[in-house]
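Worked example 4.2. Below are the chains of a multi-component assembly; read each line carefully before continuing.
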Amino acid sequence: MTDILQDTRNTGPEKPVSPGMGPSGAADEGITRLLQALRPDLVRFAHWLARDRAIAEDIVQESMLRAWRSRESLKDATSARAWLLTIIRREHARLYERKRLELVCLDDEIDHHALAAGDDTDLHTLRAAILKLPMEYREPLIMQVLGGFSTEEIARELSLSATAVLTRLFRARNKLRAIYGLAPSSEPTATGDTP
Amino acid sequence: MNCEEATLLIGADPYTSSPELTEHLQTCSGCTEFHREMLGLEANIRRALEVPPPSSAATPTTASIASFKDARRATAAVAGKRTRPALWRGWALAASLVVAVVGAMWLLRPSDTLARDLVAHVQSEPNSWVSTQVVDVRALEDLLHKAGVTGSSLTSQQVTYVQYCFFRGHFVPHLVLRTSQGPVTVMVLPDEHVSHRETFHESGYAGVIVPAPQGSLAVLSRGAASMDSIAQQTWFTVGKRSQP
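Applying the procedure described above to all two chains together yields the following structure tokens:
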């Protein structure tokens, strides 16, 4: 079975183009299957960015439409996952920039997580802490862990230097260390969070 | 590489690996300890993020919906694109997409939903395949212990990825073993029961699911690795769950 889903791993949209993914019916069918197969990933990614399930669903819906409209620009199936996650991130950023969304009650949200996962107190606290991370730290962390983006890819997408991305990722994890009783690590002085 | 550089790299990505970092860790106990701590934290971060959004949160607050709609209206006002015909076309396109998706799913539905779920899960963790760093023995032991798996003789030399993943309503061990024929994923599934050995080919992955004394084991590969031999080895080494 020829499959567009094959090897949709950690690769960026800038990868070399391969033939055979033109706007044919087969390619349309492939992109349809791709969108459906990756939808849970996309929702989860959007949810951790937006911190609200309903908004995440809307972002994903809008992003899937955008992806569908521009499906001809996807020439290489191996870059599909990163391509879609990038669309999600930009859709979220677009929304975020237009109007800062009102805060939802994260405690309620976290309670749902705990109930859903049956997890322990530390994990519960960790989820809350991740959701409460400032966007500048949460976004690169989500991109790295859930999206599989490399430091360089995150830097490109966020218009930051690689060093700035490393610093933000360091700070994000440093803020989470306390949950497990670990002392915050001293931030390396040689780094700076500058684009 | 000095301690500051090592700390930054480890703190930014505990799974990072480079000859310089490896060399530094061999000579610096402080950074080695920091690395160990961060690997433990990272496992929990990935576990925290692994959980999909809860269905109970599907009912959003009124404020957030209103806010989102406001934002959408703001976008429309600025772009001048959210006119009624454009919205109509959007919904029509969405409806077409849904029909196409349902049709494609029906025509191309996998024969085995467990196999499909396994492949989808592996695809959701692309990092698992690219990691080359050997997993810390304690992290592996902790995970297997947490999963109630005893009697494992898996050594950390074989394992390059280890996570406690949420899969089909349960947290299960998800390992990647480095073999001479490429990485092979092993998932220990105490709560998934199969009556006989089943093989599958799905989305470019080949796999085998074998019954285990308690539950089953799944082995997936994208290469030519001998999955049955891996399953057989794992069968004997990860054979029993200590608690239900």
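Take a moment to check your reading of the output against the notes. Residues 53-69, 78-83, 107-111, 239-244 of chain B have pLDDT under 50 and may be disordered. Residues 1-45 of chain B form one domain.
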